[in-house]
Write a structure and sequence with these properties.
Gyrase A, domain 2; Isoleucyl-tRNA Synthetase, Domain 1; four-stranded antiparallel beta sheet; 20 helices; 15 strands; 50% helix
């Protein structure tokens, strides 16, 4: 509701400005900000200062002229009961004060819409595909994958809430050289288990999980002696396929336990077959986007802003990683998606220009693809960094984090910084059941409302969700105003393609709820009418807290 009010005020300001500017092209952009100090109103605008140079007038004089037009327009519109006052302050700021009735309408809307409060049709059903995690099936998921997983999952939830048709997708790279290395690693450990002395290359996967898989493979295939092993291509393929299937099952289970479930699982071996890849590269060649040099095929990515052209097919006839990726992105668009979001780790940053170039070569605008780089996370235990190395098998896995701190804390903590920022994950803090732990603090606010409701029920006091006229305290209005910003927060997350703002919003909302509870008696048998209205306020907060936690994939407990 506050967002609608803000938009209407911007329209009134725009109309008022037109009368001041003879040339419409000179009209400055109008921005309404929320002042940090309540004394400066609920919305503030500096457009008078931005107009001073062109109009050759003092900002205060411009602001006063604008206010005269605005007040007249407000008096003739539905905004009359929603705006209490408009004033000009030093330097020419125009401050708008929202009426108590407007705040009461926020509460009314929450109770009318309940679980749909904050949702919108902004996306208008536009089909968006979010591809994330997509880790090679060569080992258990690391904390880097965990952070990408929860970012993609929550971003998808938010986009759905504001009207987008979202598909969450995992792309299985089951055709690259890393898969061959996985197979070789298992094969060597299997021979070692059977008593053979083997030289284990540095490039092979070193983790204990490889030994476990090797033993399981031997058991499943009833192999107990070295002479039962046929070290040929057929045997190698069997070992490799076993490893991929086993690790994909592990990955699926870990992600599901983490609350991350994909709508689609795509496989490189099916999406980007040799025939399909050859055909699409040939079509790009016909369009002039692929050329031959030194026996290899090169993609003219420089035509689309890349710093150099890229090889798609090597002189030995094998394809580079880029070739199947081009095919996969064509496959995405062929499935009817209007927009694509790829979520990658920082090691893929240099890959963005070439994949953007590929999208344009396929006939799409580069804006049809957003690539988000999620920075790494450092895990701390007892104040010390936990080292990570996938190849050496010394990293802390997603499973270990979930087992140690729980799914709720794990999901929340992986979102506690902007995705562009490095994240420090404190395992000890995540386990605390105190106000120091932000996820506990928010969940406790939700559970506390149920405890207050129970107390009120025992006293025969019921929620009054139709009259809020007695809610006049500063802490009450601060909480209501924050509730009114729920949809704005979701839209901001979409605009930034970063769910962090929702984390920040819920922390602030919980803080304002606890502040209200500490400053005022919510349930007072001596003042039943006020208690009933305050019960409505805290239950409105409960609804929004619960919905916000649901978007995060974090539980909203009734008791703690």
């Amino acid at each position: 509701m506050l967002n609608d009010l803000k938009n209407n005020l911007q329209k009134l300001l725009a109309e008022a400005l037109k009368s001041q500017f003879p040339n419409e092209g000179d009209v400055p952009t109008i921005e309404l900000e929320v002042p940090s100090d309540k004394k400066h109103g609920d919305f503030s605008c500096n457009v008078a200062m931005k107009s001073a140079k062109v109009l050759r007038k003092a900002p205060i004089a411009i602001a006063e002229d604008l206010i005269e037009c605005i007040n007249e327009a407000i008096s003739k519109s539905d905004l009359d009961c929603l705006i209490e006052n408009v004033e000009v302050k030093a330097l020419g700021f125009i401050n708008f004060f929202v009426s108590s009735q407007a705040f009461h309408l926020i509460l009314k809307e929450i109770f009318e819409k309940k679980g749909d409060y904050g949702k919108s049709d902004l996306g208008k059903g536009k089909k968006i595909q979010i591809e994330f995690v997509s880790a090679n099936p060569t080992g258990p998921l690391s904390v880097a994958h965990a952070r990408q997983a929860v970012v993609g999952d929550v971003l998808g939830n938010i986009l759905k809430a504001i009207g987008f048709d979202v598909a969450k997708e995992y792309y299985v790279n089951d055709g690259g050289n890393q898969i061959n290395i996985l197979g070789k690693s298992i094969e060597l450990r299997a021979l070692e288990h059977l008593g053979e002395t083997v030289e284990f290359p540095e490039e092979c996967y070193q983790g204990e999980y490889i030994k476990d898989m090797a033993e399981l493979f031997l058991k499943d295939n009833k192999v107990t002696f070295v002479d039962q092993v046929n070290q040929d291509a057929l045997w190698a393929g069997k070992v490799r396929d076993f490893g991929v299937k086993y690790l994909l099952d592990v990955i699926r289970t870990e992600l599901s336990d983490f609350g991350v479930n994909f709508d689609i699982w795509s496989y490189e071996s099916k999406v980007a077959t040799k025939e399909l890849t050859t055909g699409i590269i040939e079509k790009l060649k016909e369009k002039g986007f692929v050329y031959e040099k030194d026996g290899a095929l090169w993609f003219k990515s420089t035509d689309f802003g890349d710093d150099k052209d890229r090889v798609v097919k090597k002189s030995d006839g094998s394809f580079t990683y880029l070739a199947p990726d081009i095919v996969y992105h064509k496959n995405k668009f062929d499935r009817g998606f209007d927009g694509l979001i790829n979520i990658w780790g920082p090691d893929h940053h240099g890959y963005i220009p070439r994949i953007k170039a590929a999208v344009q070569a396929l006939g799409k605008d580069q804006s049809a693809l957003d690539v988000l780089i999620v920075q790494l996370a450092t895990i701390y235990r007892n104040g010390e960094v936990v080292s990570m190395s996938t190849r050496k098998g010394q990293y802390i896995s997603l499973r270990e984090v979930m087992d140690e701190v729980g799914v709720d804390a794990a999901r929340f903590f992986f979102l506690m910084r902007h995705i562009k920022m490095h994240l420090e994950f404190d395992l000890e803090l995540a386990k605390k059941q105190t106000a120091e732990n932000p996820v506990y603090y928010i969940q406790y606010a939700h559970a506390r409302v149920f405890s207050i409701n129970e107390k009120a029920n025992n006293l025969g006091i019921e929620v009054n969700s139709s009259d809020f006229s007695l809610l006049k305290e500063k802490e009450e209005f601060e909480l209501i105003k924050k509730l009114g910003g729920f949809n704005d927060t979701l839209v901001f997350c979409y605009e930034q393609l970063d769910p962090y703002a929702l984390i920040s919003y819920l922390q602030e909302l919980a803080t304002l709820f606890h502040k209200l509870y500490d400053c005022h008696r919510v349930v007072d048998p001596e003042n039943v009418e006020l208690s009933a209205q305050r019960l409505a306020l805290i239950n409105a907060a409960r609804i929004v807290l619960g919905d916000g936690l649901d978007l995060l994939g974090v539980s909203a407990p009734l008791k703690m």
